[in-house]
Amino acid sequence: MLQRLRDLFSPPPPPKLPAVPEGTRYYAIGDIHGRLDLFEAMITAIEAEMAAAPEIDHRIILLGDLVDRGPDSAGVVARARNWQQTRNVRILAGNHEEMFLAAFEKPEALRHFLKHGGRETVLSYGFSTRQLAQLTLEEIFERLPKLVSESTRDYIAAFEPMIRAGDYVFVHAGIDPSRPLGEQKRSDLLWIRERFLSHEGPLEKVVVHGHTIFERVMDCGNRIGIDTGAFRSGVLTALVLEGEQRRIVQARTDDGGPVEIFHGDQAE
């Protein structure tokens, strides 16, 4: 009887915090957008952490938009592909990868791609600024498949739409809050904004996403946005998840200066 009274009046246990599976550590890296300098620095920082904790199962997720806007999309794609040879690295499809692949299908899609950051991408694959200025759209369309190999295109086309881990789900843009995770549309996973960003209620899992730029990591409880606009801000962010713990690693540079690594205790 006394124990029942204690149970009745004792405070409820604290709510369970979201967690990734025990024994794992996840590094989710936001939109790189051609910033190979920041990506290389981030890889170096993550590799150092992994070497210091070999007993942990380390898993890396790139949240998409490896290409466009920044100066070396070709280098970022090649480096990501190389990293996958030695580490557990999975890559999400972003809307800019979708635009890139569509640019090989018809000239009008190429025109749209070039207007939204694709110009920098095709320059990184071997076009010159003079060629882009002098060639017609149809001529660029004809030459592009000769510069970007079919192997590279197939590799990018295989990027994943969604990755789940414990109480988290990783996508590029977000999810449709009205649909279960198993019924999401690919177009929403790669492109959604307002319907997802304005949703304040609970979601099936905590959504880690990029796509929408924030000045700092945006932890809203039901979602965590980690696109800090690397191509224009010089800040590339990784969210690190281990058990119930969260922290951030950032590669930062100011006006082309040396890249520095910043470690934060939590996403805030």
Short synopsis of the structure:
The protein is built from eleven helices and eleven strands. By secondary structure, the chain is of the alpha/beta class.
Question: What is the overall pLDDT average?
Answer: 94
**Tell me, what is the CATH class of the domain at 17-90 and 159-264?**
Alpha Beta
The largest sheet has its strands arranged as 3-2-1-9-10-11
Stretches with pLDDT under 50, minimum 5 residues? none
Determine the fraction of residues in helical runs and give it as a percent range.
25-40%
DSSP helix count? 11
What CATH calls the topology of the domain at 17-90 and 159-264 is Purple Acid Phosphatase, chain A, domain 2
The assigned structural class equals alpha/beta
Work out the number of β strands.
Answer: 11
Proper CATH architecture of the domain at 17-90 and 159-264:
4-Layer Sandwich
- Annotated CATH homologous superfamily of the domain at 17-90 and 159-264: Metallo-dependent phosphatases
Spatial gap, N to C terminus: 45 Å
Into which percentage range does the β-strand content fall? Answer: 15-25%
Descriptive report:
This protein has eleven helices and eleven strands. Helix 4 (95-102) packs across helix 5. The strands form two sheets. The protein has a six-stranded mixed β-sheet with strand order 3-2-1-9-10-11. The protein has a domain at 17-90 and 159-264: Purple Acid Phosphatase, chain A, domain 2. A hairpin with a 2-residue loop joins strand 9 and strand 10 (245-252). It starts with a helix and ends with a strand. 38% of the residues lie in helices and 21% in strands. By secondary structure, it is of the alpha/beta class. The mean pLDDT is 94.
